[in-house]
Structures are given as C-alpha cells and as structure tokens.
C-alpha cells in the first residue's frame, strides 16, 4: 500500500497531469474533432492494414494513481459521473484468511481509502482495467446492426451514428467495459484513443502513466515495446475460458483478478 | 449493493420493459400452440377456444415489439435491424422472425379461417361495416364448396407451419439470453427450451382465463369438457416446464462452477421473493397441486370430485397464479441476470421507476393494450359462432 509519501507523490503527479491537461485540453479536443471529421482510416499516410494493436499492463508497476483514468475522461469526453469509465483501477486486498476485498471508488479517481485491518493483509495490488479489444469480441458478434466493429488495426469501435442503443453489446461484454452514454444514448467504450493512433500517438492513458505500467503497440511486429513486453513477461489475459482472445495482456496478474 | 461490481455495472441495462417483452411473446406462442391443438392434433374439446386463441395471439403479437422500441436509445434507428442486419447477431433475426410469424402465419391463418364468415358478414351488414368487411375479404368473395374447402386445407397447412414458427419465435427469444456466455445466469442451452414450455403454459392459462371471462360476460354456459381439457393440458405443460427448470437448477448446483457462490447469493437475497415464493411456490407448486387434484389430468374425473362451479374457480385461480409465476420467471431471467456483477464478486439492486418511458406505468399500459386490441378484434371478428353455441347447449 502507498504510504503517506506515496500519497504526496501521487498528488504531485496528479497536479502535474491536471495542469498539462488544462493547458493541452483544447488542443486535444481539437484533435478529437479533426479525427471525427475524417474517415475511420484517419490521416493521409496512415494505413490501418499496417498495424495490429494491443496493450500490455504490468500489474506490479501500477501504483493506483489513476492518472490514466483522469486523462481518459478528459481525452475521450467520458461522462464525469462515477458510473461511466473507459478505463478504471481496481484495488485488490488479499487477506490471510483467504478473503479478497476489491474496490474501485470512482474508478480510482479520488484515491483509495485506507484498507481496514492492516494486520490481516497478505498482499495488495492495483489492476488497471479497460476494453480488452478482443480478437473474438462477443460485443461485435451480438450487435444487431453491426454498429460496433473491429478495425483492420484490431481496435473495437462503436459507430455513434449507427448504434440503435439496444445495449445487447453491454450485456455481452464479460469485462464490464461498455456503458450506455447518458447523453448520446449509444454504447460507449475505450477506443484505444483511435483518434491519437492515426496520428502516430499512443493512447492518453499510456502517455500519462508515471510508472510505465501500460505498454501500447504492435502485437505482431517484433522490434516494438509491446513485443518486448510479451517476450519478457509471463502473460495472462482476463477470463481466457470465454475464448474472447483479449489483446489486453497482463503481466504479474493474480488469479483472483476477474 | 454489496461486494464489488464493475463501475460500469451500476446502471442496469435492461429494465422492466425487457421483462415484458418475453412475457408478451410467450403468451403469443402459447396461445398459438393451444389453437393448433384443435386444428392439427384434432383435440375437439378445445374447439370453443380456437378462434379466441388466434385473436389473443395476434393482439399480443402486435404489442410485443413496443416495449423493445420504447427501450432503444435511438428508436428512430430501429429499422436498421431490417435494413442492415448483422448476420452473427441473434438479435438481428428479430425482425425476420417477427415479420414471418405475423405476416405469414398468424394473419394468413386468421384470414383463411374467417374468410367465409367475413364474406357472409359483408353481405348481411350495412353502412360502413359492410365496406369494412368487404375490404377484409381482399376481394375473395367466392363461397363455393371448392373455395371453402381450400380455406380449410390452407388453414391447416398454415397451422402446421405455424407450430415450428411459434417454437422458433419464443425459442429464439430464449436464445437471445441463453447465448450470452458472459452471463452465467443466462448462458444455458436449456434457456430456449425453458422459455418455450413456459410460453405454452402461459398461453394456455391466458386463453383459459379469457375463455371463462368472455363466456361469463356473454351470459353463456361454460363448456366444462373444454375447460377440463384446458386444465389437463395446462397441468401437463406445467409439469414439463417445472421439470426443465428443475433440471437447469440441479445441473447448475451439481456442476458448481465458478459462478455458483454469487448465483446462490443472488437467489437467496435478491430473488427470494420472485423466484422462491412467486415462481416456485405460487406459480408452480400450488397450481400443480390444484390442477393435479381436480382436473382430469391424472385420473378421469380428477382425484377429488368437485362440482363444476368449484372446478371453474380452481382453474381460474390456478391460471391467474400461473400468470404471476410466468411473469416472475421473465423477471428472474431478465432482471436476475443483471443483479450480480460479472466480476462474480457482488450484487447490485434494481429499483423500478414509476413514471418515465421505462417505468411501471408504461409497463402497465403495455400490459393493458393487448386486451384493448383484443376487444376491438373480437368486435370485428367475433370468435364465437352459432356452431359453438349449439355445442354448448348440447
């Protein structure tokens, strides 16, 4: 668990990111608008067929600062309420008697309360969650009109102009990664910051992570950060029994994480 | 809320309206299967309910898509399901299954069955009713023996097509839930079958109630042979339905997969009233005992020989209890499946809102609407014939 000093560090990083976002927000929002105005394939020179994206997450490196959650909310216009998240941080507290406490108050944005009964804690850790951008996505399978789809570069997106708002995809997602956008009335989710990808940038959550817990990049190309991450870590995915073939790859993942 | 749920799970996705939808389609399928008993399987005793059952199926089928439409985030885009259906989506089939059932099966069957009467009503009626009935003949006013016998055989064939179609309609609704592997409460190969048999149960029970009420309000004598037969079939269907539900339950308990702990909590905490009390006790066990003892299902004349008046009352009470039970089944599936987290670590709550598009009032309105439509249908196409009246007298 982070001690008081850790809290200070987190607060410092938080202020720093908030300041950066305040300064860069309008610019970033401008980028969003530009990306929306163009075809899904994005900027000239960007060829979706040349890429295949995934994300590596090192659980051991996550300090639970939730800067990723804050950045995501701003970058992607995620509703501010504590019930809508493209990405969120879960805290696991494993007890000596085998009990497991899990929480994610406001997705981790406001920090985590001190855990009870510190004497009984065996281990604790933070787990960043987001859309797994499955290669075999049940959400895409069930969408009645094909409004949610996989791009050629392996990202699962929702067409806001086409979604009828039946919520079947939200039911079908095993990871709780989707929600109904309260104003747009369509299914919403993590896009891997697709508007940034087509500019050659990494997702906002990866950009702001102070510990490098998130590694973004090419799944299939060899000399890349993600390929290195996949090579030098023992990798697990969430709920592998459901055969969704996630492309969110976890290192140092505990079996208690679902 | 207790335990941990994913932050995006605070909002329940499918509300009371989506409970209503499988309930309504179940009544459609069940009423149609009852009608086909007479037409295809020659169960003569239930003949007085034949046309009533068809009109009931039609009235409920017209209303069935309305709760879905009202629930959509963008109702104006619903036609895209017809225009650009996603072939891998179970839900995309809805438009086609619905259209097939409404257009090909139900409307055609009703038309062939009523055509002779419609022509005669057109000839007897005056004023605007005359024109309405002429319009309903669609120009086919030929009442020659050959023509009428064609109506008869066409109707019979349509019913034969209709039975698998009714199975498809409601089995398909079960598949929408049963095929969601992310949800251990829904994901079951038995789901379509359970839906189907509960549909048959609810359809028979509804037509039984409607038959009794409409006969009483017309000051006619209730045909006890018909009613006993309905009670008998209701008992059989309920036995099959309860057996399937039990199989599903025992199978889950015995396999005791990862989800068993949270599902046990779900049943004991959140669904105790709707599953144990309403579905199991009031909706299944009590009607089974009442029907088993009084109807001719297990023994000719029933185990307890009670007067026809008391039998009528018992059938009526059983049928109403069964309706409550079947609605609870739909609730337990649709709402129950959303009350636990897919993290399998916590339970959430659902509070029904009173007003609003997905509220209690809308739901009640959509529950009453089919009866209003049925009332209009019965006025235009009276299901009771002279022949039925004489058979009652006899």
Write the layout of secondary structure elements.
The complex is a heterodimer of chains A (258) and B (394).
Chain A: H1 4-37, E1 53-58, H2 67-75, E2 87-95, E3 100-103, E4 121-130, H3 138-142, E5 148-150, E6 156-158, H4 168-172, E7 179-180, E8 187-188, H5 194-197, H6 204-208, E9 214-218, H7 225-232, E10 235-236, E11 248-251
Chain B: E1 2-3, H1 16-39, H2 50-63, H3 65-71, H4 80-83, H5 94-124, H6 127-136, H7 145-178, H8 191-217, H9 224-255, H10 260-270, H11 272-294, H12 308-334, E2 346-347, H13 360-380, H14 386-393
Antiparallel strand pairs in B: 1-2
Helix pairs in contact in B: 1-2, 1-3, 1-7, 1-8, 1-12, 1-13, 2-5, 2-8, 2-13, 5-6, 5-7, 7-8, 8-9, 8-12, 9-11, 9-12, 10-11, 11-12
Structure description:
The complex is a heterodimer of chains A (258) and B (394). With 258 residues, chain A is of the alpha+beta class. Chain A is built from seven helices and eleven strands. Chain A has a single domain (4-251), classed as Alpha-Beta Plaits. Chain A has helices at residues 4-37, 67-75, 138-142, 168-172, 194-197, 204-208, 225-232; strands spanning 53-58, 87-95, 100-103, 121-130, 148-150, 156-158, 179-180, 187-188, 214-218, 235-236, 248-251. In chain A, a hairpin with a 6-residue loop joins strand 7 and strand 8. Chain B is globular, with a radius of gyration of 22 Å. The N and C termini of chain B lie far apart (62 Å). Chain B has a two-stranded antiparallel sheet. Chain B has a single domain, classed as Formate dehydrogenase/DMSO reductase fold (Up-down Bundle). Chain B has 394 residues and is an all-alpha fold. Chains A and B meet through strand 3, helix 3, helix 4 and strand 7 of A and loops of B.
């Amino acid at each position: 668990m982070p001690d008081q000093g850790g809290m200070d560090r987190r607060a410092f990083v938080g202020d720093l990111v908030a300041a950066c976002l305040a300064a860069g927000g309008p610019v970033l929002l401008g980028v969003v608008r530009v990306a929306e105005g163009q075809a899904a394939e994005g900027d000239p020179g960007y060829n979706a067929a040349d890429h295949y994206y995934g994300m590596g997450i090192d659980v051991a490196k996550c300090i639970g600062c939730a800067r990723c959650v804050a950045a995501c909310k701003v970058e992607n216009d995620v509703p501010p309420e504590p019930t809508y998240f493209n990405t969120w941080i879960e805290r696991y507290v494993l007890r000596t008697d085998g009990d497991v406490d899990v929480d994610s108050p406001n997705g981790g944005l406001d920090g985590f309360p001190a855990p009870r009964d510190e004497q009984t804690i065996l281990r604790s850790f933070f787990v960043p969650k987001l859309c797994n951008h499955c290669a075999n996505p049940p959400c895409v399978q069930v969408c009645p009109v094909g409004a949610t789809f996989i791009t050629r570069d392996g990202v699962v997106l929702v067409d806001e102009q086409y979604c009828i708002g039946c919520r079947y995809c939200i039911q079908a997602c095993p990871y709780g990664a989707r929600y109904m956008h309260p104003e747009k009335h369509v299914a919403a989710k993590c896009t891997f910051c697709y508007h940034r990808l087509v500019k050659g940038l990494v997702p906002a959550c990866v950009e702001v992570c102070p510990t490098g817990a998130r590694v973004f990049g090419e799944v299939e190309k060899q000399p890349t950060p993600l390929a290195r991450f996949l090579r030098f870590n023992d990798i697990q995915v969430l709920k592998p029994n459901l055969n969704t073939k996630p492309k969110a790859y976890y290192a140092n993942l505990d079996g208690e994480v679902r | 809320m207790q335990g941990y749920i994913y932050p995006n799970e605070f909002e329940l996705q499918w509300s009371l309206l989506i409970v209503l939808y499988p309930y309504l389609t179940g009544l459609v399928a069940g009423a149609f299967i009852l009608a086909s008993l007479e037409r295809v399987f020659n169960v003569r005793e239930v003949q007085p309910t034949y046309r009533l059952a068809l009109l009931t199926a039609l009235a409920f089928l017209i209303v069935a898509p309305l709760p879905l439409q009202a629930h959509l985030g963008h109702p104006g885009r619903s036609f895209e399901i017809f225009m650009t259906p996603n072939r891998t989506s179970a839900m995309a089939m809805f438009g086609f299954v619905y259209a097939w059932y409404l257009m090909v099966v139900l409307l055609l069957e009703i038309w062939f069955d009523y055509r002779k009467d419609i022509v005669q009503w057109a000839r007897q009626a005056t004023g605007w009713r005359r024109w309405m009935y002429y319009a309903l003949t669609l120009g086919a006013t030929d009442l020659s023996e050959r023509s009428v016998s064609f109506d008869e055989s066409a109707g019979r064939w349509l019913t034969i097509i209709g039975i698998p179609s009714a199975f498809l309609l409601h089995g398909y609704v079960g598949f929408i839930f049963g095929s969601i592997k992310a949800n251990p409460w829904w994901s079951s190969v038995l789901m379509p079958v359970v839906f189907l048999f509960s549909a048959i149960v609810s359809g028979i029970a509804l037509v039984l109630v409607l038959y009794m009420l409409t006969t009483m309000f017309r000051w006619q004598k209730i045909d006890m042979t018909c009613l006993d037969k309905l009670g008998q079939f209701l008992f059989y269907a309920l036995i099959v339905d309860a057996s399937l539900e039990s199989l599903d339950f025992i199978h889950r308990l015995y396999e005791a997969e990862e989800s068993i702990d949270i599902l046990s909590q779900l049943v004991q905490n959140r669904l105790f009233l709707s599953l144990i009390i309403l579905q199991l006790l009031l909706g299944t066990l009590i009607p089974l005992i009442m029907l088993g003892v009084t109807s001719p299902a297990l023994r000719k004349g029933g185990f307890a020989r009670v007067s026809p008046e008391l039998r009528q009352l018992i059938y009526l009470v059983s049928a109403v209890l069964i309706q409550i039970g079947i609605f609870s089944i739909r609730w337990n599936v649709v709402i129950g499946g959303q009350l636990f987290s897919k993290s399998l670590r916590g339970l959430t709550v659902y509070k029904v809102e009173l007003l609003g598009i997905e509220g209690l009032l809308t739901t009640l309105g959509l529950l009453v609407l089919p009866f209003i439509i049925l009332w209009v249908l019965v006025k235009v196409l009276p299901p009771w014939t002279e022949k039925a009246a004489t058979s009652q007298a006899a």
